[in-house]
Specification:
This protein is an alpha+beta fold and about 500 residues long. It has 21 helices and 16 strands. The protein has helices spanning about 1-10, 15-25, 35-50, 50-65, 75-80, 85-100, 110-120, 125-135, 150-165, 180-190, 200-210, 215-225, 230, 240-250, 280-290, 315-320, 335, 340-350, 460-480, 485-490, 495-500; strands spanning about 70-75, 110, 140, 145-150, 195-200, 330-335, 355-360, 365-370, 380, 390-395, 395-400, 405-410, 420, 430, 440, 445-455. The protein is elongated.
Length: about 500
Amino acid sequence: MGNQHGLQSIKSGSSTPNSVASSNNGSRKSISRTASGDDIEDSTENQFLMPVERLAKVLSKKSQAEENVSNAVTKSVFYHYLFPRYPLLAEKLYDYFVQNSKAKSSPLSTNEFKQQCDKYLTLLDDQAIRDTFVCMWSTLDEEKNNLLITTESFRSLLMCAYHISMDHYSDGPQMCFSINKTLKAVVDGCFYQKTSLSHQFVSHWLEHNTPRLLLPLHRFAVHAIATSWRTLEQNEPPTSAGSMLDEMLLPTGLELATPVLEQVAGPFGQGKPLHPHLLTMSMSWLLAGALPPMYSRPQKAHSPSSSGTGLSSKSFLSKIACAIPSHWTLLYDSDEQGLGANRFLHHVLNYKGPTLVIFRVENNQKFCVAAPCEWKESHHYWGGEDAAIFQLLPKFQLLEKGSKILYLNTTVRGYPQGLRAGSDPRAPKIIVDAGFEKIEWQKIPFYIETIEVWGCGDNVQREKQLEVKKWEVKEAEKQRAVKLSAADWLDHPDRYLLELAGRPQYHQNQT
């Protein structure tokens, strides 16, 4: 009661003893200029609300204003203000919230929306994240009482994750003409010519073959739910709020149809229409989600605002949502530098970082050997725990991974010559002959058409390799320029070869 009387006296303009004393002392402060009680309550409430509570409050107000739905968050408002560029993600996520809520109906009440957002933000385990997204894209089979996911739904899930990674690429939004072929390889590798599978099987397949492929999709959704209230609390009209949210979530000036493939120096060599690289943009996205983090460790972001208030929203989202590495460097291309064991050794040895060796063989098949450390010649198997072997096309699958599965020998006699990959020395998964002309897989030989080696380390490792190459070239030139004395020349084998070719003999007394 006392507080109510105090607020009423302030609103009516009556003075308290403290205000009278301050006015007598000539102070400029006055109770009449203090904010009203409603403003104090609103500011205090907003100050201590959590981000999810703030988001739910703002979306509830917009649902009331736009659709005349009170104390609830509608699907259209959820899509329009949180995921304006990704309607499929908004639909699946909102339906997932509805199915897990107590109401089991749409629209979600404000309290149910807050509870579902809090539960979603607490997803930290990678396996739980994969299970959640596979369940989002699955449908309930009433006969078997199990969630099933079809090939079309699985492909749409992969395409959604791919689009988010493409839109937040560090060099700007990208596109890849071979995305359909890449997604078909993943679907064929998972479904084995079946039309539908249980969500448990698909989730386990993703865990074994591409464990990190869906994680950027989850990080992007978490970022949108946890930070969108900052823009939405400014109370712009729906049109301007949507545009401002796009500027915050996506790079400035984003054009989804940007013809990056037609550029002269596109990423991963896609600017070469006459000679495209084996590692396309979509395949690099797939391998980055299948390999350990050491292969896709990004470079340090150089943002214009990094020296001021911190990283910009564009560079920040490129780090959390983009799963495509921008620092992979082409070390060896057999189409341009020749196919052979000596060419492979010359361009790959002395590179200290992890590498990807991609083989294209007959019948448009592709294989990949991932080496986590520097390549070396040895008659023993070597390699760390992050070494892996993949079949890329016509279907994508992990053949084997683990330590000591790599083998490269071109000099030691009495041991197999060439490159091998596999834990069993008697039956490796992949066998490359000594001349790097044929590859054997499942005991079937295929002719090698192209080999590419990509370095996954930083620029320092690449520069050190180039320095070693320059030193080797200089040493070879010094060996060629060695001057022979007259005594050495008399017994040199080149002298006898010249005499056999018909060159006359020169004596010291001749001038």
